[in-house]
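Weekly structure sync, notes
Attendees: PL (lead), two postdocs, one rotation student
Agenda item 3: pending single-chain targets
PL asked that the sequence for the first pending target be pasted directly into the notes so everyone works from the same version. It is reproduced below exactly as submitted, 565 residues in total.
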Amino acid sequence: MSGKYPADSETSELRTLIEQFSEDWALHKRYFDIPLSEEDIAAKGTFLERSRAVLDSLPFESLSLDGQIDYLLLRNLLAYEQEKLSWQAERERELLRFLPFAKTIVELEQGRRCGKPLDAQRAGSALSAAAQEVERAGPLVRRSLAALARALRDNELQTLAGRLVRAVERLREIVQRWHKFYRGYDPAHTWWASAPYTQLDSALEKLAIDLRRQYLDESDEASDTAVVGDPVGRRALVNELRFSMVAYSPEELLGIAQRELSWCEERMVAASKEMGCGADWKKALERVKEDHVPPGEQPTLVRELAREAIEFVAGKQLVTVPTLARELWRVDMLPPEKQRVNPFFTGGEVISVAYPTDEMPHEEKLMRLRGNNRHFARATVHHELIPGHFLQGYMAARHRKYRAIFRTPFYVEGWCLHWEMLLWDLGFAKTPENRVGMLFWRMHRCARVLFSINFHLGQMTAEQCVALLVERVGMEQKNAEAEVRRSLAGDFPPLYQCAYLIGGLQLRALHRELVGSGKMTNREFHDAVLQENAIPVELIRAKLTGQRLAREFRPAWRFAQLAEE
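Predicted structure, written out during the meeting:
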């Protein structure tokens, strides 16, 4: 063990309860994982209700401050998961109106899941009847969607059709998993069910293809070149904000992002003039994009930039950098297929370097070069390594690990954006080209707020999200497509991309409150934040300020104005 801090020794009265809940909830989610199963949703809901009753029975007022924070974190998570279940149930009920055959498939899988003895003859009859229902469902779905088309906008109709397609494809996967479980192990199943299984599998495949072609206008939506997504709606966005304890509405966050973007554009113009490009900052941006290293030299550049950032933050005593964290990070290359969904560096203990490969099409190769130039990379490496994600993860593994279940992107990505802003203030950018590189990323974060919220509110299409990045930020077309594809594919929470800027503003405001007032040094502040793990910033604020908390605490911190002052 090396560095100032010991292994995780902090605890509160609720640590054991939280650890037990984490394991029990993970077990429930693994077991009750069948889509379109009302029984699975109900079972998870019952577990959450029982967990809430246990939590409510605890004497909040007699807990320590850490204990009260943990209580509020767990209560907040329970409320978030309960609302997610309610939202999921509502969506699935809507889909079940179109897919009456789903109940048969769900019941078969529920029996298989728990090892219930199989009545092969009865299962074969159920599969055959379900196949006939699927064949009848195609025309019924099309008529229903045609009737709805009068009341829905084109993008809303496509969204509903997309959900139906994905539901049919998931049901097909369940049938295939169910059949694979018995095939070759149960002779009765093979005799009774093989033929009706094939009939059902083919019918589900045909239904999905027909709906995709007719309503999505793309036979290759699932390919790695399509830009797709499924808007979650305002209700789900509000739930995400409650979970991260961000006391702003989605619409208010749009206004904050617009103001931040205007700030960036003003400074882009100033940097452009310093470069001799006049007020046309996009001309300056194009010049910066051309300053990239030759093939083979990108890993060396990354190492140099990492050392520069480490020496800067350590030399100014901005944060503690333990010896192991300083020395034991690694470099890897981002595979070409992953660059289609993430065209820039990713990081943590291993920083994955984005750079074009020899087999890429020429146009894509040039875009990858330009999108990962020296100055963009200079503003990315410290985000991914130190003082960014690697240092963050290093400390999270050693302090209050039991809080990992409360992880919020507003802290995870906000930490790195706070550093981008602070390093800007401290003059880390040495040249106007450096400033253009830093401002590009800051504008990118503003645009992420705008396109992610507007998309999930149903006010922007995926194509409009790409256009926003190209036109307002100056991103390369292919890189913008990859960025939007990654953001909307469903692998991240709906406000993950929004969390970069907004979380950064939260930590920036807290930094000004405590460091700007002289109550803490930079190093004390950053070390203290890291030791709380990845929880909502408002509760980190409560801890660092010694705030008195109540059992019915609700987030109310209006941080944006302080961050902008």
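Discussion points:
- The CA atoms of residues 152 and 158 lie 9 Å apart.
- Residues 237-564 form one domain.
Action: rotation student to compare against the earlier draft before next sync.
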